[in-house]
Amino acid sequence: MASFRSQPLLLDGVGSGPILRRNKTTRGGGELVAAGFFREVNNRVKFPAMGAQTRWNGQLATGKGGAFEEAKEPESAGADAGRDGGGSAQAAAAAAVEKGKKVVAMQQRLVDKILGRRSPVWSFERTAAEADNDIDSTKEVRTYDSNLSSYNGNATTSSATMEPKVQDVGGLDTAISPSESKLPAVDYKSSSRDETPDTVDAKEEVIDAPPLAGVNVMNVIVVAAECAPWSKTGGLGDVAGALPKALARRGHRVMVVVPRYGNYAEPKDLSVRRRYTVAGEDLEVAYFHAYIDGVDFVFIDCPVFRHCENNIYGGNRVDSLKRMVLFCKAAVEVPWYVPCGGVCYGDGNLAFIANDWHTALLPVYLKAYYRDNGLMKYARSVLVIHNMAHQSGFRNSDSGKLNFELMILICQGRGPLEDFYHVDLQEHYFDLFKLYDPIGGDHFNIFAAGLKTADQVVTVSHGYAREVKTSEGGWGLHGIISENDWKFRGIVNGIDTKDWSPELDVHLQSDGYTNYSLETLRTGKAQCKAALQRELGLPVRESVPLIGFIGRLDTQKGVDLIAEAMPWIVGQDAQLVMLGTGRSDLEEMLRKAERENRDKVRGWVGFSVKTAHRITAGADILLMPSRFEPCGLNQLYAMKYGMVPVVHAVGGLRDTVIPFDPFNETGYGWTFDRAESGKLIHALGNCLNTYWNYKESWEGLQKRGMEQDLSWDDAAKNYEEVLITAKYQW
């Protein structure tokens, strides 16, 4: 009988025995995976079939000098025993097989331990080369037949084999101590990651999550005339400060470009200078940079901007136009010349987001200066309409004195056709700017050119997207918008939940105010209300509903409706606080109401961010009777702070304030459908009645408003869809 050394060691199935091999698809290189075969090489049991090395607990096992190497006998003695066919050969074979059983049993315990620890990162995929080796190994498996047992060589290893198995060999009662197997000393109970430094525990391995944007990560440049907290006159500044951060959280590389109106602390000079010609005059600009919350903020500095720190849109029409021409010319070249973090954005996979008429020239310049000349071929532009009424023409102080219906017809922002020569474009682009209206005839309009040339157009709510297609809401541009409806959509704004959160608001941390949450709403808001009443000199009365208004004092915001309803309001057991600036006649109305009703009315002519936050936290009711409101942010802030809104159902107000249903206890506030003082009084009266007589319903209104997700995250996802659409648009 031949020596056992000349026979294959059979441990699993019939003729195959899976062992441990390193998983090459994971970190550490030492992860153990069940695979491979034993095979005979040079009269010695050697593994694995592929010739790979295997590591147990830091010990290297190979066919030579490893755990499975059989102790050599003198060659002649083994041969003689085989020829004699004596019982010694049978005993040796039985002992060796039993020895193998013990060894594999120890393997099994080790593998079970490893499987329990490593299961999150197991991988059983094999390369084509490994699979070929497995096939080759099956060709060398032979059949062993003896009086003890028989095995048929039929290798069946696959990537689905997860654990080594031990075949019951039966009939062998020879006991061999594990210590006699010459295995390296291994403490299986104490085996740990520390003993195998080239492996990584799955629970501790840190893997960066992929960006939410997936494969559509882009370079995004938001260009705006204002950006909070540095410059802000309205909602545009809030959007320019918050939307980019939300896009950055989704994985995009995002930049905001804004004029440098003042000596801001955060931005640092990049020592980059560029010169641009505006209406025949050479102007030099400098670029400043700050990196905040994952966003690059780039400030364009020039003396023409520095004079406007306190009045961004001030000056005459031509001066305002020239400033924005310079701004857009400098902004469109930022990705080429301004390094952020040492690297320029470049013009590949790039999208600009322009905002309102102030930057509507940017899509035009991108087309005329670059894409029409074979440059920036892969850059795209999106134009966002925040307020169609703002089209660069009359100053606010002038427009406020015009009849409101007349303003709708003539478009606030038109200029003479000669203004075209200030934008420094070739004459064949002239028709982009020419717009006709029934009263003034043909005129120059920047917004019209931007709408025509932008790859995509967005406005700030679904309701406003419908309204701007009408003659009443389109301000003369409804025809152009309808023609470009295929690239037009509405996206409701969000709010910056870091700046506007009753739990985190820094303006509520002094002067008797307090931060509060949904759980502490009742006590926290009551404390803020009392602090606000004391600060403004109103009687401190918790039971009295406190009504607040925050916004510009003009007809667009419906302040004239409040003036008409003022006698009714002061006749109620309620208090009114108004914050804002605007038309001089409405400012005087506010001062007069305060003089005549010292115990009920307070007016703050001007604007204060701190006071706006404190009114939102301390007041019970927000009054927002806007004649039109593209989106509106104050109603979102109000609901986040447990303030109940009463609004005119237009634009974004209709989208965001669901009317209260007392029967089903749903909704967030009250709406009225026409801009009339009587409608306002009716809605406000129902609101006051609920406050006085239905406290449970009132608390439900507050809590439902606070529970909403009003962050920018959902809006950023929608903007991302627009950017992707523009990216693949030709």
Structure description:
There is one protein chain. It is globular, with a radius of gyration of 39 Å. It contains 23 helices and 25 strands. Helix 4 packs across helix 23 (713-727), helix 8 (361-370) packs across helix 12 (446-453) and helix 16 (559-570) runs parallel beside helix 17. Strand 9, helix 4 and strand 10 (253-259) form a beta-alpha-beta unit. It is α/β, with parallel strands linked by helices and 730 residues long. It has 3 domains: 4-195, no CATH class; 214-490, Rossmann fold, CATH 3.40.50.2000; 506-710, Rossmann fold, CATH 3.40.50.2000.
Question: Which terms summarize this structure?
Answer:
730 residues; 25 strands; single chain; six-stranded parallel beta sheet; 34% helix; alpha/beta; nine-stranded mixed beta sheet; Rossmann fold; globular; disordered N terminus
